[in-house]
What we know:
Layout: H1 6-32, H2 36-48, H3 52-55, H4 71-79, H5 86-96, H6 104-111, H7 118-129, E1 139-151, E2 161-163, E3 170-181, E4 186-194, H8 200-209, E5 216-221, H9 228-236, E6 240-245, E7 266-275, E8 288-290, E9 308-320, E10 323-329, H10 338-347
Parallel strand pairs: 1-5, 5-6, 7-8
Antiparallel strand pairs: 1-3, 2-3, 3-4, 6-10, 7-9, 9-10
Helix pairs in contact: 1-2, 1-7, 2-7, 8-9
Amino acid sequence: MRPLSLSLIYKEARAALEVADIIFNFKEAHFMKYSIPKVQKSLISLVRSLSPADVAKSPEKDFSRKRRCTLSDTVLTIITMAGHSLRKELDDYFLSNSRSLPSVSAFVQQRAKLSLDALPRIFRCFNNRLPFTQTYRGLHLIACDGTDLNIPSIPGDKDSFIPYNSKNGGYSQMHLTALFDLLEKRYLDAEVSPRRKMGENPALCCMVDRNIFKGRTLYIADRGFNCFNTFAHVINAGQFFLIRIKDLTSRNSFCKGISFPDTEEFDIVHTFILARKTIHDDRINTSYKSLQKHQVFDFIAPDDKRTTFIMRLRIVKVKLGDDYEYLITNLPEKKYAMSELKYLYNLRWGIMRISAYGR
């Protein structure tokens, strides 16, 4: 048996996630506003309209010869796979269409001709055919979350291999960060990276920068995404965020030193001034935040001592049952009351089905 190719493992994991998103969106679109026949027709029509220039590694030669397993057959077989052996998957697809069966090796050869971006591109095109139109007060409500994914063990890959603490061996994982439209109940975008190079904040920043919506978007996320760089990307894109942050008294809280009301709940506005230099001035000490040279902030270069980035943010303390939670947002206080922020953040739990990917 040939050793597993690291690039192939990454490609297959990425492809599997894109297929899962296509299938999930195929099912969910029906429940929201589209009939099953319409969604099915749209997906099949999209796949059959593909040309080698769209999805092939070498468009000038790949899928150019007439074969039993065409380009559309290859893609539809992958999308309709149900976790069985490859032989059974081919039987189910081709025999249900009264077609002659290709060999397993013939299918594998055809599949290998697909480019790394083939299935992500199909996923994006499929979403474009079924527009995201549902909004809350003009906002697309987009939740972000991540989960770890097990892949075949690759001990030689330091980026994905996690060794056991007590004995030899270990396991390999990748990390998925995804965007989910809470009103449409559909996935919008995703980023995949090796587990040890996991960066949920950089992943979210990439997805914010390529946002497909023309209107306003509200990104809702948990504590793992409370980062000035993430805030800045959303603000720079002219969008909004609502993110849970750590307890204000925690050691690493970026709100440390700010004076807050001694009340059960509060909603205050605070201005943060970000820069790469250190200023020793008690008058602006609570507003000024010095960014370390190694700290990622895409809007100020590591050696830039002149530029500043100003953020005017709301810090909100809310009571949920017997516990208190802290939220940070750039939503305008005159339009969105504290009670509304509670409601919007609670909607975020709709993305928790993403954990099924890691099972």
